Structures are given as structure tokens and as C-alpha cells.
Amino acid sequence: MRHNKKVRHLGRTKSHREALLSNMANSLLLHKRIFTTVAKAKALRMYVEPIITKAKTDTTHSRRNVFALLRNKYAVQELFGPVADKTANRPGGYTRIIKTGFRQGDAAAVCFIELVDFNENMMSTPADKQPVKKTRRSRGKKSAAKAQESTAEEAKTEAAE
Questions:
Q1: Domain residues for 80?
Q2: Region (Disordered): which ranges (predicted)?
């Protein structure tokens, strides 16, 4: 039984898994959205969210800790720049996983993992959108009676003219 074992091994050795997660985290921070399998996305979420939390405090110590994990100065600059600015008041949950179906070759479950504050489509609130006028497809008894009355009134006005 694997009680209380939270590491997703992903069928790789420790060094291979660390390199994989580091590269995926770099891609996620630079591109804001990546396409991968669900298992890798869930492992990446556990890897990248503490890194984003560390980036909220812009100190030399936190930059060095993050660079030790990412090993990419451009990803570190992006993380401590726009990413840290947008996630400053968010208490966690910096990533979103959206399942997209299954890969054709091996039927693996695939998904998008993205940074929450960088998706413009999901950020728009319902108050920003124009209200959609709902129309009924079927007419009830009262609506049908009103429609008949209005046509009768129109016929009377046309006959009077």
C-alpha cells in the first residue's frame, strides 16, 4: 500500500523527474500555458506553485532558491516580474488544469495547464459581459392567448382605418 506517499514518480528516476519538472516549469512560466498529460500536469502543479509563492517576496535569497530549481534566468526574470505582480494578492491556486481529451497514439489523458491570471477568456466576469436576453422556444397557454388578442386588436385597427 502506498499510504501517505505523495510523490508522483512518472516512471522516471529522481534525476530525470527533477529535470522534467524543471523544464516544464520553465516552459509554463515563459509561455503561460502548456499542453501535456494529466499526470505530468498534476506533478507540475505541486512543483511550480511553491515556486510562485516564493516569488512573492523579491529578495536575493528567494531569487537564488528559485534559480536553483529552475536553472533558467529568463524564467526567473519572468517569474519575479509579471507573474509575481499578477499573483501578489492571490493566496494560492496559481495554476489551472483543463482536460482536453485523449491522445490518439496511446490514448493518454491530455490537458492544458496554465497560469490562472494570464488567461483573458477566463478572467472576464459576468458583470463585464452584456446580459443575454433569454427567449423561450415554446409558448405557454397565456402567451398564446396574448398573441391572439394582439392580432385581434391589430385587425380591428386596420378595419377602422
A1: 14-123
A2: 124-161
Per-residue pLDDT of the chain (161 residues; tens, 9 = 90+): 989 998 999 999 999 999 999 999 999 999 999 999 999 999 999 999 999 999 999 999 999 999 999 999 999 999 999 999 999 999 999 999 999 999 999 999 999 999 999 988 887 766 655 656 666 666 666 666 666 677 667 777 777 76
Q: Angle formed by the axes of helices 14-31 and 60-70, to 10°?
A: 120
Residue 129 covered by a domain: no
pTM for this model (two decimals) = 0.75
Mapped to the 3 state alphabet, what secondary structure does 86-151 carry? HCCCCCCCCEEEEEEEECCCCCCEEEEEEEHHHCHHHHCCCCCCCCCCCCCCCCCHHHHHHHHHHH
Q: Looking at the domain assignment, is residue 52 inside a domain?
A: yes
What sign results for the dihedral spanned by CA atoms 13, 19, 20, 22?
positive
Task: Give domain status of residue 94, yes or no.
Answer: yes
> Phi and psi (nearest 5°) for 137?
-85, -30
